[in-house]
Amino acid sequence: MRTAAGLAYRESGPADGPVALLVHGYPESSWMWASLLEALAGAGWRGVAPDLAGFGDSPPASSGTWQRHVESLERFVAELGLPRVALVVHDWGGLIGLRWVCDHPGAARALVVSDTGFFPDGRWHGLADAMRTPGTGEELVDGMTREGFGAALGAMSTGIDERAVDEYFKAFGDEARRRGQLELYRSGEFSELAAYEGRLAALGVPALVLWGGEDPFAPVVGAHRFARELPGAELVVLDGVGHFVFDDAPHAANDAVVKFLQALDG
Question: Under CATH, which architecture does the 2-265 domain have?
Fold first, then answer.
């Protein structure tokens, strides 16, 4: 793992290739992109996938709020000197990455949006509500064991294997990391997104909306909303797939992303 601006990251493909910046969700890490990084390299793209602060091999930051993660991503991009990127996001990576790209018009040449939200009328799902509740959240993260974590992911995913569980459980490696998860969720007020209404569409870049049709956390209605709000967006819904699309349906997800990116210069 390399590091830049305090974040560990994975990288693939030619150094002079067009860049895809991959931002993972919760409770994952850059490991979720391992298969896509390989596919991108095969297509001549340079894939860059950071571990967000406190996840994977990145140390926790002094503050784990939503805003601080956005600022951390900007420092990462700046230190690596990345040119205009194709931004690929999933779950919390969408809330972080889409906010970053709206704050920096011109930073992205394309968007791939997967199983996330970016709407001011959004509502948290049950697990997120638990994380946001004082006392309940602490009990949840402090009581999480590797075995319990693996069982929970196994109940939600068909593709997260033991190696992936080990990689994702690094987010629970110490107290600072566990507290960072609570800080992230408790700082996540959807009302803040009112200031971003219309700004994704205003970027005017090609977009792929890629979703699991059976996602219980970010229901597929959100995919159709993104597709309506992003002019000309391509919508791909993977039937029978849940939230963890890149873990559970890597071949279909990778093929959709690579096909979309290859068409950018076609």
Answer: 3-Layer(aba) Sandwich (3.40)
